[in-house]
Amino acid sequence: MSRYYMGRALSTVLRVGGALSALTAGVAYAQTATAPPQADTQGADAVGAGDIIVTAQRRAERLEDVPVAIVALTGDTLAKSGVQHMTDLGQVATSVQINRAGAFTQPAIRGITTLTLGFGFENNVAVYVDGFYQPDMVTINGDFANLASVQVLKGPQGTLYGRNATGGAIVIDTLAPAKEFTASGQASYGRFNDLRLQGYVSGPLGDKIALGLAAYYRTSDGYIRDIGADPLSAADDTNAAPQKNLSLRAKLLLTPTDNLSVTLGLNHGFVEDSRGLLYTINAFPASFIPTPPARATLRDTASPTIPADAKARATEATAKIVLETGIGTLTSYTGYATRLSHSTFDFDASKPVITQSVSNNIREYTVQQTLDYSIKAIDRLDLIVGAFFYDDKLRVDGGESYAGSVTPAGLQRSQFIRLTSRSYAFYIDGTWHISDRLFLTGGLRYSNEKRGISYYEVPGTVTAIAPPASNSATFSSVTPRAVLRYEIAPRTNIYASYSEGFRAGVFNTTVLPNPGLVIPINPEKLRAFELGFKTASPTWRLDAAIYYYDFRDLQVGVSIPNPIVPNSVVQLISNAKKAESYGAEAQVTYTPTPQLSVRAGASYIHARYTDFSNATGTGFNATTGLNVTGQVQNWTGQQMARAPSFTANLGFNYETDLAGGKLALSANGSYTSSYVVANPSLYGLLANPALANTQRYRQDGYALLNAQVNWTDPSGHYTFGVYGDNITNTRYNFVLSGGAFGDYSQGNEPATYGVRAGFKF
Question: Alpha helix (H) ranges present in 399-473?
Fold first, then answer.
């Protein structure tokens, strides 16, 4: 490690130390920490008084003994906090943002996120469900239902979770088959005709076999309205973005011997959510952009020529085998998944037919295999060795920019694209108990990945097509980590860590006029330094950390005009040479009585590009009043996307006796300061000089509040309640960007409310 990095890290620690002290002092004064383990946060399981067990290091450990910044929440806590969707996680997890870009869900942790979007690209925050990696950005856009826990691991997890875990990992576990009969269900109905049904049943089928079945269904009219063929009349308005979500999960648990268990899973999911493909355009004067009323301009309205369609289906078969041996635990994860996605939208967001994108055949096939061996037989050493294999094939049939480009003249052309990714990795990670209180952890992972691309075009109304092209590239990396942890007192630890993250290189999936331009984009790499403090008792818990990240070749994607097809856009990816992020965070939970739990968190993030003078952005020409797409801009010193400087959350659960049963009150509030949503572009040199170096697409700070009231009958089996999400009706933009047609945006869901009823046996 060079003196430069050590010096930079030390300097950053000193700069943010004051902020961490302020955060820690504030939460310590409030004496708040973790809610009771029986019903609340910070892990997948609870053992004993206040013990929370997590699996961040691929072995079961108490949360306070794991030298990783973690937010871990039970399914019960998520429900009580009003967290019903992946995008809601940022309301309860400090330093976390879950954003949308078109149909794609893109997490951000501590300012680390991806700006590359499109089928075939992967997030740089890895998502795992029941131990299986989820590669695409569409099918993870589902509602939370029948969950056991969610763990958010902050910082690069390259050693244990591999490639594309540069920013961290989100580890989701669903309910496992029970050895005794259990059943639960819930129905809710809310604003916008939002109907949700979920159920779970599990129990033994014999002495050594158990079955668990989970189902979830949601349908909603949505809050965005199509202004119809007659924009001046509401009579023909329709629902522009209805939402549907279906999830079916079956798990069969076999325990033929005391030391062997086999869990077979079959999962099917369906998601329809086209909100990100519908937007309101603030169009600048241009002949090809119609003026109102042919173009929607009001919030929560849209004016597409064709209905937006963002549907995705995923079917996955899994097998998890756990074998207890004489020296440790051997675990195998084997999975095969198929995914089918649709993508249809109107580029110009106006009633006249100008240009559209249609694709109904985007297919992905994924095979993965993981082996973990957790060895406990070596004195004073906890050791894990493992291997990983991954093979993914994606094909897009019949699409311009993944779709058929439709104009008034008809279908211009169709494209057929093939993307492949095959990788393998080997890793080892161990913790040496130097003494009863001092622990040294070291790990190393070797990753190798080969990516390929090929494409060809078929002419439509346009006969001039790009020549076929193909290319492949291999990327490899070694990602280490080292951690020193000291136990100050029982259940109180401090730690210092160094870790690295790696995201494999990619290809621009744009069809180009010259096959020689089909070249790979460099991998992105991250070096991270972190200092952390954790303490816990049966009634409270406090976690705090400061960190410094050094990026190299961060992959950044922006939309530019298609060089081949007029009036359409393509995704262009480039590497930001250098960037950095540093910050401080703290999270606490306090449970003074079994009836009351209070939780809070706060974070500060400073994330900037430090060397990115050749970025491609969307500028503004003050003379013509038009956007300037594909403009070369200097983003050095500018804030990175999805990295608000300050975020905070505060929530509580309270329970009291009422009419022989239990009345439960809960609420959760969150605050997010101003941030760049997804496009860091500047106004540029052709704009007003006072604005030239100002980022255009920023969202102002906002606060959200969710609350609910539930009553459980004296038997404890039946629950009835009311809920409200975003009850202050706070409005912000989850889509905010710009291109050749103008600046476009789409707002979040307004205040929603409803009733629910459930049972549990």
Answer: none
Angle value at C-alpha 394, between 388 and 399, nearest 5 degrees: 160
What b/e string do you get for 452-489 counting C-beta neighbours within 10 Å, with b at 16 or more?
A: bbbbbbeebebeebbeebeeebebebebebebbbebee
Q: Which position has the higher pLDDT, 667 or 344? A: 667
- Residues facing 210 on adjacent strands: 204, 253
> Alpha-carbon distance 151 to 45, whole Å?
11
pLDDT at 18: 42
User: Model-level pTM?
Assistant: 0.88
pLDDT at 311 over 50: yes
Instruction: Round to whole Å and give the CA distance between 728 and 715.
Output: 35
Virtual torsion, Cα 531, 537, 541, 544, nearest 10 deg: -10
Q: What is the mean pLDDT of residues 646-673?
A: 95
Q: Give the separation between CA 206 and CA 204, rounded to whole angstroms.
A: 5
Q: Secondary structure of 251-290 in the HEC alphabet?
A: EEEEEEECCEEEEEEEEEEEEECCHHHCCEEECCCCCCCC
What is the DSSP annotation of 462-506?
A: ----PPPEEEEEEEEEEEEEEEEEEEEETTEEEEEEEEEEEE--E
Say how far apart CA 372 and CA 412 lie, in whole Å: 50
Radius of gyration of the chain (CA): 26
Query: Which segment of 241-255, 339-353, 364-378 scores lowest on mean pLDDT?
Result: 339-353
516 SS3 class? helix
CA distances from 153 to 68, 70, 156, 169 (A): 7, 5, 8, 5
Q: Give the strand pairing for 356-375 and 404-407.
A: antiparallel
> What one-letter code names the amino acid at 530?
E
Interior angle at CA 554, CA 553 and CA 555, nearest 5: 105
Domain segments of the chain: what residues? 3-760
Please report, to the nearest 10 degrees, the dihedral formed by the alpha carbons of residues 155, 160, 164, 166 taken in order.
20
pLDDT of residue 75: 85
pLDDT tens track for 257-288? 999 999 999 999 999 999 988 988 877 655 55
Name 270's Cβ contacts closer than 8 Å, sequence gap at least 6: 244, 245, 246, 247, 311, 312, 313, 314
Convert the pLDDT of each residue in 612-637 to its tens digit.
Answer: 998 888 999 999 888 888 889 999 99
CB 601 within 8 A of CB 651: no
Extract the tokens encoding 357: 């994108």
Q: CB-based burial of residue 385 (10 Å sphere; 0-12 exposed, 13-18 middle, 19+ buried)? A: middle
Quick one: how many helices (H) and strands (E) in the chain?
3, 46
CATH of 3-760 among 2.40.170.20, 2.30.29.30, 2.60.40.3930, 3.40.50.1000: 2.40.170.20
Angle formed at CA 735 by CA 77 and CA 564, multiple of 5 degrees = 135
- Which H helix or E strand runs over 543? strand 540-561
Grade residue 46 by pLDDT with cuts at 50, 70 and 90.
Answer: very low
